[in-house]
Request: fold
Amino acid sequence: MPNEVVTAEGAPAPAGPYSPATLATGSRVLNISGQIAADADGSVVGGEDPYEQARECLRKLDELLRAAGASKTDVVRVGIFLTDIADRPAVAKARVEYFGDHRPAATLVAISALVAPELKVEIEATAIF
Reply:
């Protein structure tokens, strides 16, 4: 039995061969693909500001959680990818604002590039609910 594909209402279709999120068959495990700060037209939301880009990534993550019937307190793990490790404090600020006292396990990785050169952050997550 295949996993259930989860999409957020009004969200753009994926630009590649992947699902925005999948709900594992027979369970309540939601795997959310990396979210970037791009709108439906491909324009970067937040400009060059890593804090604003992170906020947009988390907003999109939140939409997918809600579409599956989950919430941010169900997130058990996040993966954060930065093109500049110096942006860590700005992204951490957005993450704390979003999650509040909830502290999922996390991995933060500095990488050389994302899918578009102006993107600075990508965030993926796993939720169990």
Remarks:
- The first strand starts at residue 4 and ends at 6.
- The domain at 4-12+19-128 is CATH 3.30.1330.40 (60s Ribosomal Protein L30; Chain: A;).
- The chain has two helices and six strands.
- Residues 80 and 123 are 5 Å apart (CA to CA).
